[in-house]
Amino acid sequence: MTTTEEIYHLYQQHPVISTDTRSIAPGSLFFALKGDKFDANTFAEKAIEAGAAYAIIDNPEYAKGDKFLLVEDVLTSLQDLARHHRKQLTIPVIGLTGTNGKTTTKELINAVLSQKFNTLATKGNLNNHIGVPLTILTIDSSHEMAVIEMGANHQKEIALLCSIAQPSHGMITNVGKAHLEGFGGVEGVKIGKGELYDFLNEDASRVAFINSDDNTLQEMQKTRSLQNVVYYGKTINNDNLVTGKLLENAPLLSFKWNDKKSSSYNVKSQLTGSYNLDNILAAVCIGTFFGLDSDEINAGIEGYQPKNNRSQIMQTASNTLICDFYNANPSSMFVAIENMDKVKADRKVVILGDMFEMGPESAVEHTAVIQKALAANVDERIFIGKDFSSQQTEVDNSNLINATFYLTAEDAIIGLKENPIKNATVLIKGSRGMALERLVELL
Ligand code: ATP
Ligand code: MG
User: Fold this and answer.
1) Which residue's CA is the closest to the ligand 1 atom numbered 25?
2) Cα angle, residue 196 at apex, residues 193 and 202 outer, rounded to 5°
3) pLDDT in tens, 19-38
4) Are residues 66 and 102 in the same domain?
5) Which residues form the Mur ligase C-terminal domain (predicted)?
6) Which residue in 154, 155, 146 sits closest to 113, CA to CA?
7) Facing residues of 30 across strands?
């Protein structure tokens, strides 16, 4: 069997990893991972033909010469290699987890820190047991800092990702209702996400950035007596390194922030959604902590424009759209509806699609979202999907005002063609599987 040290030695000469034979980088190390449908051991030879320097495999049948390195388990070997590489690095590694806002906060932190440092951040949403090691293995000697997103839908996953990325700094954006099925309810989510705090607490030099307005995070930190905490928030509080205040949400956010020296700065962001102020303040806090000046921090925030269907503003001929069809869960639905309640606009419409992976709490949570939307200060509500539709009967009929239910997105498309929406600010939000981007051309 080939050891991690031996593979690391080859990695130093071949520092690019490939896992897909359709895109083999010449001279790369090919890791033959197993997917749901494929066993990449069967593609190892093809990878070498396509230019990979070595193929790491775990089935001896496919070893066709000295370019094939046999290991016990390819995935573990990839993770071990990443962990070994991380141990050689002395740069700050910021690990980010949480229920909502990880990618947005990661992008914002990177937008800020890259004003001063050569940073490496997770690409897109590569935040799992494969994405994190692949990201770590793209850090090279030119990088001065790394920002690593860590996602989880079950216990022990964050502990594993921490053992690989070994964050010197970390933050949990928030703890809410998502992946309830895999975590076993909200208490399970708290334990799962708390694995980041557990890791930070193993070493007094590791720093946790915490939103001081978030009671759940405060409670989680107190039960562990975290040793090294830096706070940020919206409530004025002497402990905060950075405090911020929303100025306008129309629907782009303007805000002001100040540091401990009490200078105050006004900033206009390209983000919408009042919940995004928490994400922005996290990035401002981390920028301040790492010694960036206010011009650098503000340039980073002002320059960040989401292009990833996460609270992204799109102006069409008829409407202003808040495209949030990347994902949805009860927590993010609630804050998105609260935001629509407050946003400044003449006409407001919410289009909400089913939330997936909800387990036994699905019915209750869909009903709660319907009620939240009915109570919000908006002009029209459209619910799409079988989970919302099946809860329609749970709501008192007299409350179902300006509310339409469609069983499928196809039905909604027909409905929107018959009754087009015009001159409105429209929130479109649902789970990825609902693919609500299909509605955009009708709006
Ligand atoms: P994933 O689990 O898919 O990686 P994520 O945690 O990376 O998600 P983002 O992709 O940044 O989160 O944001 C997804 C959606 O979550 C946003 O479009 C928005 O609706 C919501 N959201 C973002 N930030 C917050 C926040 N601080 N609190 C609540 N909801 C948020
Ligand atoms: Mg993400």
Assistant:
1) 101
2) 145
3) 998 899 999 999 999 988 88
4) no
5) 310-432
6) 146
7) 18, 55
For the cut 90, the answer to whether the pLDDT of residue 401 exceeds it is no
Q: Are 96 and 170 in contact (CB under 8 A)?
A: yes
Q: Residue 30 sits in a domain of what CATH number? A: 3.40.1390.10
In 3D space, the residue among 414, 352, 338, 350 whose CA is nearest the CA of residue 383 turns out to be 352
- ipTM for the whole complex: 0.99
Domain total for the chain?
Answer: 3
| Structure token pair of residue 133 | 């090691």
- For residues 298 and 320, membership in a common domain is answered with no
Amino acid at 247: L
Gyration radius (Cα) of the chain, Å: 23
Residue 84, in any domain of the structure? no
Query: Is residue 42 located within the same domain as residue 149?
Result: no
Instruction: Among 303, 336, 366, identify where a domain stops.
Output: 303
Q: How far apart are CA 395 and CA 84, in angstroms?
A: 55
Same domain, residue pair 296 and 363: no
Question: Are 173 and 272 within one domain?
Answer: yes
How much is the pTM?
0.92
Whether residue 50 lies inside any domain: the answer is yes
